[in-house]
Amino acid sequence: MYDDVAFRAAATVTGGIGVGDTPPRCRNVEIPLQTWFPCGVDFAVLGPIEVTVDLGSPGKYEFTPKQLRLETGKLYKLILRNTSSDPHYFTSHAFSQMVFTRKVQVTQQQDGKAVTLAEFKGAIREVEVYPGQSAEWWLVPVAAGRASDLRCDIKTSDGKTHADLGMVGEIVIV
Fold first, then answer.
1. Closest C-alpha to 99, from 33, 23, 48, 31
2. CA distance linking residue 82 with residue 63, whole number of Å
3. HSE on the CB side for 15, CA within 13 Å?
4. Which is nearest to 37 in space by CA: 124, 138, 142?
5. What contacts 51, CB < 8 A, 6 or more positions away?
6. Could you give the maximum distance between any two Cα atoms of the chain, in Å?
7. pLDDT means per 10 residues in the chain (174 residues)?
8. Spatial separation of the C-alpha atoms in residues 69 and 13, rounded to whole Å
9. What does the alpha-carbon distance between residue 85 and residue 97 come to, in Å, rounded to a whole number?
10. What φ, ψ does residue 46 adopt, rounded to 5°?
C-alpha cells in the first residue's frame, strides 16, 4: 500500500521531531523536511485520522471548521468537501511547509462507494475543489506551528476574492 520511494526513505529516518529540529540524516544523506517524520511509526497499521473541511456552503464563503488542530507524527486524511455552487481553493503556503504529503486523491461516488479518479504526489500548496465535489489530502504533520494564511483566492465577478469575503482560516499543528 505504501510503496513509493519517498515513503520508504522517510520511514528509515532515525531520530525524533521536535520544535526547532533540523531534518535528520539517513545513511549520511540529508532527508528533505517534506519527507521526514517520526521513527517507528507504521502508518499502514494505524490508518488515517479523518478530518472533514467544508469549503463554502450555498451563499457563504467560509471554511468549516475555521480552525484545524492537528498533531505531528499522525496520518490524516483531510477531506475537502465543496457543497457550494462555486469552485474553492484550500491554499496555505505555511501549512504546506509543515506537512509530508502522502497523496491527494480525487474521488467520486459511484454506487454508494468512493472511487478514486486521480492521485497526486509531492509537495502540495493548493487544492481546488469544484462545486459538489471533494478531494482527499493524505498527510503527516512534521513540524509544529501555526499557519494563519489559509485562504481561498478565487475572484468573484466584482473582483473580490473569496478570502476578502471571509473565506480564511487557520491550521494549528502541535
1. 33
2. 10
3. 15
4. 142
5. 68, 70, 76, 77, 78, 79
6. 55
7. 35 36 42 46 72 94 97 97 95 96 90 90 93 95 97 95 97 98
8. 25
9. 30
10. -70, -40
Contact 83, 54 (CB under 8 A): yes
* 88-91/76-81 β-pairing: unpaired
Q: Are 163 and 153 in contact (CB under 8 A)?
A: yes
Strand partners, 172: 69, 146
Q: What pLDDT is recorded for position 14? A: 30
CA distance 41 to 72: 12
Res 58: pLDDT: 87
Task: Report domain 42-173's class.
Answer: mainly beta
Grid cell locating 62: 467560509
Specify whether the CB–CB gap between 174 and 107 falls below 8 A: no
The residue extents of the domains of the chain are 42-173
Contact 138, 102 (CB under 8 A): yes
